[in-house]
């Protein structure tokens, strides 16, 4: 069942990316004009879209040398601004002071109707700043005075997010890639998406779903860690968000889970300042792991010393370790708890990982919601494909004023 679901889901992601790439020249043109102008690029998104747009900014800075200003607030600043004024205007307020220095604003919103995104788009229209807006559906829900609405062609929350990150990644990659033509870069990545839907990924998903749903039910901890940072860590942040919020939210009898993700900026800056060993942080985190806890370790190269230290720490704790990597450990005996991603660059790897995270999120939610003595009858590949998690984000009916 999970193999069928994996194949069907990735086929939908593949189709959505292909639809978006028919307009990739236009999107790349907006990015290239921003590069040539020397102005700033700013980006905004809520939930998983936050990690998506920050990955694009990191890529533009790393690969194309673009001057970016990631004004997605720190959690403390965002919470403070939202409570002191209004979250509806929090993005626009952060953008307004430097609006004349901004060459492009990137926004991502599956609904295309988030109030803070609309406020930002209106501010850009009033000041003649072009916007690259990634939205779900056909894109008609969002009007732009300047720029482009880049629609996914589907309203499915997770498929749209995967298509957004992949399309943005490939558009930004064109700016920094000189070795291959844009179509070659795109086709290589689409081939990687197509080849992920295999029996091995289905087996990985089966094991991961049982482990995570079991950990949530029995109040064990789930670690989602990428000790090497970079775009894979941003996808890991999205992964942890899925497991912490999307998978269990609103399921009767399920309490909020314990999900531990990569250190905060305060933690990380202290680790690097006080400890020259880059592996210290992940060793410290996994020092609290117990038998029965679940560890997702995300790695570019699992043979690197930092990752090997993390593997040893997880194994020493008796945790259930799941390794997602692209290079490094090879050979027989790995079993279904290790999945090797196809060969793409680090930003492409993050896009592939995000799809795996969404697969785990959907299957975990279905497993948690299933009636215990009728689980097999309650789950199906088609049912998992129909399980769009977007409407499940309502938190509570708490009164506005306490």
- Compute the number of strand runs: 9
Helix content: 40-55%
Number of helices: 16
What is the CA–CA distance across the termini? Answer: 47 Å
Description:
With 402 residues, this protein is of the alpha/beta class. Helices cover 53% and strands 12% of the residues. It has helices at 2-21, 24-37, 48-64, 75-84, 90-95, 115-127, 157-176, 182-196, 199-217, 231-246, 265-274, 280-286, 305-317, 346-369, 375-378, 381-385, and strands spanning 40-45, 102-109, 131-135, 147-151, 221-225, 258-261, 294-298, 320-325, 338-340. The protein has a 5-stranded parallel sheet with strand order 6-5-7-8-9, with helices on both faces. Strands 1-2-3-4 form a 4-stranded parallel sheet, sandwiched between helices. Helix 6 links the parallel strand 2 and strand 3 (131-135). Helix 7 (157-176) runs antiparallel to helix 14 (346-369) and helix 10 (231-246) runs parallel beside helix 14 (346-369). The longest helix has 24 residues, at 346-369. The chain is globular and about 55 Å long. The termini are far apart.
